[in-house]
Design goal:
The protein is an alpha+beta fold. The chain has ten helices and 17 strands. It has two domains: 199 residues, PmbA/TldD fold (2-Layer Sandwich), CATH 3.30.2290; 228 residues, no CATH class. It has a six-stranded antiparallel beta sheet with strand order 3-2-1-4-5-6. Strands 7-12-13-15-17 form a five-stranded mixed β-barrel. It is globular and about 70 Å long. It starts with a helix and ends with a strand. The relative contact order is 0.13.
């Protein structure tokens, strides 16, 4: 880790080498470690580190970019020269509004010394706390424990200077026994937040409970979606229409619907990168401070998110959801929080006459973007609920469903939330969810 002063000093040197009227320089630095296990044994310890600088040279509406991970002065100047030369021959982008002006971002502290200094032995102990109970139960555990630390800095010729650093920790496992499987993933910026043994116990419980699945007919069922399954739906909502570029190009499911009630009354979704419940970030990939955006309020579609370019098209300000250029995907909300309710998963089960409890989804893909329809399979614990109790495991099912339609009739919302990636979501009970087929496993 090189620190703020050195990072910004490197970027100053790169900017000085640019031969265009405007330029932007980005620095990415990271060190990541991984302890992987399979068949109830650790089989891999790896570590990698890298420091990369990307320069974007800008001449009017022409842009060129170059990247290097060589930090000597000659290599930095060479990268700046290459970007400048590419800008000379690049096609014009008439929508490019120019680089953002400097703005003050809030202070965000997501760097944990213990996580950054984590040794392989600590990760091995966490892995062993998952492996040993699985082996004792005659099940097979696989997965990984990872830790890392990273830095991101940005500078441009308009005077913008921004720097942040952070750490990350992740534990994930899949445990299998016969036809049964269970999975659990936990992540945080602080290693001490993770309880690997508890994650393993949750996965093992699902595995053992699902060893003898039965077939059921596809169709529409009331479903109780645990947090990982809800996280998938929320991610696809973001990808398929909550960013301004998709809206401006007419491919968002929100087109013409802002202000309409699209989801259930119980659903409020905000994007807030400063909320400590998630994975906080101070500014985006363009150096713009992150802002809180209400996406859905009690089911009503309220807003989309912007980067610098899409904001200029609509005559508004960036909401701080841009990604480093070159970026053809536009802005996305990446720190979404679904407001909690007042129910537990046990309450949801007890209130269900007949339905399915779904742990998570797998191999999920887009089927019809304009209607936010996705397709995929259940995995690692799908259970039949009858008369208020779980009566047994069912074989995994394939589904094809609109994320919007699924969330339009939400009956219950969990009071406890889990971090799924960088989003924070509760479990949900949905009145209806469409299953179109069964799987072999």
């Amino acid at each position: 880790m090189i620190g703020r002063d050195e990072a910004l000093s490197i970027l100053e040197a790169v900017l000085a080498g640019a031969k265009t009227p405007e330029a932007e320089a980005l620095l990415f630095s990271g060190a990541h470690q991984l302890t992987r296990f399979a068949s109830n044994g650790i089989h891999q310890n790896v570590a990698e580190s890298n420091l990369t600088v990307r320069i974007r040279a800008i001449d009017g509406h022409r842009q060129g970019s170059a990247t290097t991970n060589r930090m000597d002065e000659a290599s930095l100047v060479e990268a700046a020269s290459a970007a400048s030369e590419l800008a000379e021959f690049a096609a014009e982008d008439p929508d490019f509004p120019g680089l953002p002006e400097p703005s003050e971002a809030p202070e965000v502290d997501v760097f944990d010394d213990e996580t950054a200094a984590c040794e392989p032995q600590r990760r091995a102990e966490m892995a062993r706390s998952i492996i040993d109970p699985a082996a004792k139960a005659e099940a097979v555990a696989s997965g990984a424990v990872s830790t890392g630390a990273g830095q991101f800095a940005i500078a441009n010729t308009k005077g913008l200077r921004a720097y942040t650093s952070g750490t990350s920790a992740d534990v994930n496992t899949v445990i299998m026994a016969g036809a049964g499987s269970g999975a659990r993933t936990e992540n945080s910026w602080r290693l001490a937040d993770l309880d690997a043994a508890a994650a393993g116990a949750a996965a093992l419980g699902k595995c053992l409970d699902s060893r003898e699945p039965v077939d059921i007919e596809p169709g529409e069922y009331t479903v109780i979606l645990e947090e990982p399954a809800v996280g998938t739906i929320v991610d696809f909502l973001a990808y398929l229409g909550l960013g301004a570029l998709a809206y401006q190009e007419g491919r968002s499911f929100l087109c013409g619907r802002l202000g309409d009630k699209m989801l259930g009354e119980k659903i409020t979704i905000v994007d807030d990168a400063l909320d400590p419940a998630g994975m906080p970030e101070a500014f985006d990939g363009e150096g713009t401070p992150k802002t809180r955006v209400v996406l859905f309020e009690k089911g009503v579609a309220r807003n989309i998110v912007y980067d610098v370019k899409t904001a200029a098209r609509d005559g508004v300000s960036s909401t701080g959801h841009g990604y480093p250029a070159p970026n053809t995907h536009g802005p996305f909300p990446g720190n979404m929080l679904v407001e909690p309710g007042d129910a537990s998963v046990e309450d949801m089960i007890a209130s269900t006459k007949k339905g399915l409890l779904v742990t998570r989804f797998h191999y999920t893909n887009v089927a019809e973007p304009s209607k936010a329809v996705i397709t995929g399979m259940t995995r690692d614990g799908t259970f039949l609920v009858e008369d208020g109790r779980i009566v047994g495991a069912v074989r995994n099912l394939r589904f094809t469903e609109s994320c919007v339609d699924a969330l339009a009739d939400v009956e219950m919302v969990g009071r406890e939330r889990r971090r799924v990636g960088s989003n924070v979501v509760p479990a949900l009970k949905l009145a209806s969810f469409r299953f179109t087929g069964s799987t072999e496993f």
